[in-house]
Amino acid sequence: MPLLLLAAHIVLVAVAAVLVSTNRRPSSAIAWVLAIIFIPLLGAVAYLLVGYAKLPRSRREKQREVNELVLARTAGSPLISQGHDWPEWLHSAVVLNGNLGALPMVKGNSAALLPDYNGTFDAMIADIDAATSYVHVEFYILVLDPTTAPFFHALARATGRGIAVRVLSDDLAGLMFPGRKETIKYLQDIGAEYHPMLPLRPLQGKWQRPDLRNHRKILVVDGRVGFTGSQNLIDASYNKKGNLKRGLQWHELMMRLEGPVVRELDAVFATDWYSETDVLLPLNSSAAVLNQGPGLIDAQVLPSGPSFDNDNNLKLYATLIHKAERRVSITSPYFVPDESILMAIVTAAGRGLSVELFVSEVGDQSMVYHAQRSYYEALLRAGVRIYLYRAPQVLHSKHFTIDEEVAVIGSSNMDVRSFNLNMEVSVLVHGRRFVDAIREIEDGYREKSREQQLEDWIRRPVSQKAFDNLARLTASLQ
Fold first, then answer.
1. What pTM, to 2 d.p., does this model score?
2. Which of 68, 93, 154, 342 has the most C-beta neighbours closer than 10 Å?
3. Per-residue pLDDT for 260 more than 60?
């Protein structure tokens, strides 16, 4: 009997080694094979549940279908920026971005940064109240609570005026916060059309890897104005008892957009709506209005996630960091980088660039927090300056700037989950005034942070080092 079990174990490991390694990073494949070797039954079951990091074929085909429609709409458009004032290296990054996400870099846009949590809701409400045609709402977390109630009341006023209000939120994320039933009932009562994203309904044929999530944050009003960034529709404490006890408050960064780029942001919403409802909303192909005046930006929306064949955001981020010539400033609440991103960052520092990373002093997710800390020594030794945003604020903003003219802002963390498993949306921006404005925000982060010194980090307790390094191993199980 023991020989039979040993033989079965060997066969299982051999089969797993072949299946797991197909089109997978070596580090991830090795982690899965080791899990199956040391905990065969649990490892095999875990792999069957969460080992495949793509959405079902039907969803990926819908993504390709919308991509083709978008490409047909934008071919030869006068809205596409020719990049006459770009740094030379940006042209290839824009081509890469377009090939990955099918959306062009468009000109004539205005953008306003919104670093104030409640002020962001106020700005959204004002635009919803001015809606004349439709309101598209898509947020990873969407909760009706005392802080967000005015936003929901604005949606009610919109439906009362006959405005079409369409709402999406992540299904599993909704189960993690109080008020889910009340939130959905309110939306139904006011006449908004609500659908959950990535629901797990096996009996209805809706099934995918359970931890694939739609992490996007999008609001589009009439195709005229759009919002995106890091902020969810929930109170700044996230309504969790542990957060309230610790006094934690989330600090975010959103941006308000006007111009042709809003149509591209709306195309991302339309794709997700199509995936969840089988209804393809008409893509706006009317003549977009180019904004006039100083401070305008070129902007390119990049959707990413398991509905695509490539890790879109990973490829863009690594490319931009490698292209940088003078400075890289990164803000990411969850920093568990892919090997290529880590190499790009330490290489940039080694090339003599000024490289800095803003993260939170405290974490709300223990394993991610400790996995993140395991990278600090390599970064500090390479010359990267790490700033820890002081508690009880949790720095949840997600953006980075390259040199003086290029920035990326959106919903994506710089971690393996956002690169491989989450559906995200980012916006690549060219505009010096816009980057100057983000740099002012980064200066504010720096003032409210303490800088981590290598000498102090090396002297931290052995128990912390052990836990950090053990947590890092979990990052490879993708």
1. 0.91
2. 93
3. yes
